[in-house]
């Protein structure tokens, strides 16, 4: 199942599970309980996802979902597709929901290992600044259209992004351990 997939492939590449393909107005969300993808919302007319968007499995972010990842690839894939990718950096930011709660919400950026156009990109800083600005603007406007606020706090390289993934893996493991403790039945002592 997708939610049991490790964050990294054995070759050290990132496993990215695509929820929403490049060019889509529809935002899909993975439902781990059923193993399906549901339509979450539709973006306003004229707004589309600039690249494939999904999550890093076996991680947990501050917002309670797996870490988000934007995967650079020339053509769209499909919801549920697992793309092996090379991590290049992160657009970090704070997201404030409709409830007023603010949480860290980094957007990892990776290049699909099968990409030809972005094959030489190893660092976020190697992308044209205009493209990074457009991606950042997309996340700001996307959240704004759904009644949330996304405030970018900076762009960082691979090391910071990898550190966020390691933190996300630990957070997921700790949450799973707490969940297991709650599920254990109490033993009767005679």
Describe this structure in a few short sentences.
With 190 residues, the protein is α+β, with helices and mostly antiparallel strands. Helix content is 23%, strand content 32%.
Low-confidence stretches: none
| The CATH homology group name | Inorganic pyrophosphatase
CATH architecture: Alpha-Beta Complex
Average pLDDT value? Answer: 92
> Under CATH, the topology is which?
Inorganic Pyrophosphatase
Estimate the strand proportion.
25-35%
Shape: globular
Strand order of the largest sheet: 1-4-5-8-6
Distance between the termini: 41 Å
Task: Explain what this protein looks like in three dimensions.
The chain is an alpha+beta fold and 190 residues long. It contains 2 helices and 9 strands. A hairpin with a 5-residue loop joins strand 6 and strand 7.
Topology:
Elements: E1 14-20, E2 26-31, E3 36-42, E4 52-55, E5 68-72, E6 82-96, E7 102-104, E8 107-112, H1 129-145, E9 149-156, H2 158-183
Parallel strand pairs: 5-8
Antiparallel strand pairs: 1-4, 1-6, 2-3, 4-5, 6-7, 6-8, 6-9
Keywords:
alpha+beta; two-stranded antiparallel sheet; 2 helices; 190 residues; Inorganic Pyrophosphatase; 5-stranded mixed β-barrel
């Amino acid at each position: 199942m997708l939610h049991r997939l490790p964050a990294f492939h054995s070759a050290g590449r990132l496993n990215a599970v695509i929820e929403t393909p490049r060019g889509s107005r529809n935002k899909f969300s993975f439902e781990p309980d059923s193993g399906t993808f549901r339509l979450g919302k539709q973006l306003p007319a004229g707004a589309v996802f600039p690249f494939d968007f999904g999550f890093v499995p076996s991680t947990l972010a501050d917002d309670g979902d797996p870490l988000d990842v934007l995967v650079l690839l020339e053509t769209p894939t499909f919801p549920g597709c697992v793309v092996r990718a090379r991590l290049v950096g992160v657009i970090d930011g704070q997201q404030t929901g409709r409830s007023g709660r603010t949480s860290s919400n980094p957007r990892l950026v990776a290049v699909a290992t099968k990409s030809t156009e972005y094959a030489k990109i190893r660092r976020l800083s190697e992308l044209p600044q205009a493209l990074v600005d457009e991606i950042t603007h997309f996340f700001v406007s996307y959240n704004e259209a759904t009644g949330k606020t996304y405030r970018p706090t900076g762009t960082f390289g691979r090391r910071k992004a990898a550190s966020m993934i390691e933190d996300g893996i630990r957070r997921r493991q700790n949450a799973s351990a707490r969940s297991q403790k709650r599920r254990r039945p109490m033993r009767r002592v005679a």
